[in-house]
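Give me C-alpha cells for this 341-residue protein.
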Amino acid sequence: MNRFLLGLLLWLALGADPVRGALVNGHGYVPVADWAQANNLKVSWIQRGEQLAAGNRILRLVFTVDSSQVEINGINVRLCFPVANVRGAPQVSQLDADKTLRPFLYPPRTPGTRRITTICLDPGHGGKDTGNRVGGHNEKTYTLALAQELRDQLTSLGFHVFLTRTQDAFVDLPERPAQANRRGADLFVSLHFNATENGRDEVSGPETYCITPVGASSSNAEGEGANYGPTTANHVELKSLFLAYETEKALVKTLGAEDRGVRRARFAVLRDAIMPAILVEGGYMTHPTEGGRIFDSGYRRLMARAIVQGILTYQRFVQSAPVAAPVSKHPARAIGAIHLP
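Here you go.
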C-alpha cells in the first residue's frame, strides 16, 4: 500500500495520468492522445504506432516515435526528450508537455502596459575571434553586416537598437548579454553563420536557439553547458521559445530555406540574459549555394527582413490584450488570435 501511495504521489507531482502515464528512462511521460484530448485537440494517426498528428484548424503538431523533435505548423522544434512508444501509444515527456508544447496553446503575456522598445543585436565573433572561415570569408564580417542591416530596418520601425560591437573588435562572451542587461534591452538577438566539414553540398538552412529548460540536455552538437542547472535565462524561457520559433519560421518562409529547427542550448550569450534571448544561425557558409548568398548584401537584407517579421509576430504574441477586451480561455482561440490574419 505504501508503494502504491508513493507511486501515485510521484505521478501527481509530475502532472501525469497515474493510470496511463509511464516512466521512460527515469522521466515521466504522458500519452500524446490523452494530452491532446485534454487540450481540445483532435488526434489522427499518420502511421499507426509510429506517427501521430494532433491539432485544430490553426495548429498542427506531428509526433514521431523515437524522434527528438516535434513539428509545429511545419517548423521543427527540438524536444527535451524523444517521443516514446509505450505499448503501441506515442508518449511525450511531461517536461516537454509543460515547456515545449503547452506554451503554444497558452501563450505567455507581458503584464501591464510594457512594450518592446529596445533591442540588443549581438554580431557574433569579432577581432581576434574570426568565427568560421570559408575561403577568404570570415564569419565575423558577415555577422556585423547583418546586424547593421537589421538595426537599420528595426530603427525605421521605431525600435531603439544597439549593437554589442559596431566594428571589428573582440568582445568577451559574458559581456554581450551583460550589455543588454545594463542598457535595459527588451530582446537580445545574437547573430551567427554556420559551417560544416562533412556534407558541405547537403547541409544548409537556418537554425535558431533558445535556452535549455532545467532538467534537459542542450541540443547543440558540442553539448556546451549541457550539465548546467538553472540559469538567469530560464526565468523567461517560454518567451524565448516563442521568439525563436517565430524567427525560425520567418527565416524558412522568407528565404525558401531548409528548416533546421528551433534548438535548445546553454550558450554563454544566452545563459545570463534577463530578457528573452535567441541565437540565430542564418545558414551555412560552407554550402556552395547558400554560402554565396550569405556573402551577398541583397540576401542579407532579405534575411534581416525575415528576422524583423519574426520579432513583430512575437510582439503580437506577448503584448497584453487591452483591459476592456475579452480574453478567451480556450487554447485554440488564444493561439488563433495571434496567428490568424
